[in-house]
Write a structure and sequence with these properties.
This protein is mainly beta and 116 residues long. It has strands at 2-6, 9-12, 17-24, 30-36, 43-48, 54-56, 64-69, 74-79, 88-95, 105-106, 110-115. Helices cover 0% and strands 53% of the residues. Strands 2, 4, 5, 6, 9, 10 and 11 form a 7-stranded mixed sheet that branches. The chain has a 4-stranded antiparallel sheet with strand order 1-3-8-7, with no helix packed on it. The relative contact order is 0.33.
Length: 116
């Protein structure tokens, strides 16, 4: 099982990026994106269930949108109106159970840098 995240990069404040996380080897019920800013702990950003139900951290509501393609086993994170405080390593996570806060599988991070 492998989760491959991509799409990070350098963007100016107010700009947009789309992250992707492709899962190989298994279909997952839940996906989530977490981020870890320099010198800080990893934090939950957004999660999505099989049917598309989602939950967002307050800091990204209205700016980030998570979606999934169950045929491609891929989850996306569309990020708009990016702020310097969004700068972090973004990691995707996945789990086969339909509910809960634990994620068994993790991908490598992709760095998002937002310049002011």
């Amino acid at each position: 099982v492998q989760l491959q995240a991509s799409g990070g990069g350098l963007v100016q404040a107010g700009g947009s990026l789309r992250l992707s996380c492709a899962a190989s080897g298994r279909t997952f019920s839940r996906y989530a994106w977490f981020r870890q800013a320099p010198g800080k702990e990893r934090k939950f950003v957004v999660g999505i269930g099989w049917s598309g139900d989602s939950s967002y951290d307050d800091s990204v509501k209205g700016r980030f949108t998570i979606s999934r393609d169950n045929v491609k086993n891929t989850v996306y994170l569309q990020m708009k109106s990016l702020k310097p405080e969004d700068t972090a390593i973004y990691s995707c996570a996945a789990d086969q159970t339909p509910w809960g806060s634990h994620f068994e599988f993790w991908g490598q991070g992709t760095l998002v840098t937002v310049s002011s």
